[in-house]
């Protein structure tokens, strides 16, 4: 038995699109899906909360453009301990 914290299939979808969510570029439909998912998934709630704060800090501290460079994203995911999960399809 694996001990993946994000075991639900929805979690992968949610987490891979959190970056767009942070950019405010997600469709309303996905936002609703996201809110519903967060309502019963503590893991993703925590991740999103952390992501929001991190994005906010990154933008305000360095005045980065709305679209973050890839290396910033990578560091962000690393900080959030998401990197392994995001790249799980690519071992
Ligand atoms: Zn989840």
Outline the fold blueprint.
Elements: H1 9-16, H2 18-23, H3 28-40, H4 42-62, H5 70-79, H6 83-86
The structure holds zinc ion.
The largest β sheet comes out as: none
Q: Please count the helical segments.
A: 6
What structural category do the secondary elements indicate? mainly alpha
End-to-end Cα distance? 19 Å
**DSSP summary, beta strand count:** 0
- Low-pLDDT parts are 1-6
**H-E string:** HHHHHH
- The global form is globular
Share in helix: 55-70%
Strand content: under 5%
The hetero molecules present are:
zinc ion
Instruction: Count the domains.
Output: 1
Mean pLDDT: 70
Please describe what this structure looks like.
The chain has 91 residues and is mostly helical. The chain has one domain (9-86). 68% of the residues lie in helices and 0% in strands. The protein contains six helices and no strands. It has helices at residues 9-16, 18-23, 28-40, 42-62, 70-79, 83-86. The longest helix has 21 residues, at 42-62. The radius of gyration is 13 Å and the shape is globular. It starts with 8 loop residues before the first helix and ends in a 5-residue tail after the last helix. It binds zinc ion. The site of zinc ion (ZN) has 9 residues, from helix 1 and helix 4.
């Amino acid at each position: 038995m694996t001990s993946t914290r994000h075991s639900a299939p929805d979690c992968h979808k949610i987490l891979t699109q959190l970056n767009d969510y942070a950019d405010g570029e997600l469709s309303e439909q996905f936002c609703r899906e996201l809110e519903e998912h967060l309502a019963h998934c503590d893991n993703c709630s925590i991740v999103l909360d952390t992501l929001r704060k991190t994005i906010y800090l990154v933008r305000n501290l360095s005045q980065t453009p709305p679209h973050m460079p890839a290396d910033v994203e990578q560091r962000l995911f690393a900080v959030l301990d998401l990197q392994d999960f995001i790249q799980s399809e690519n071992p």
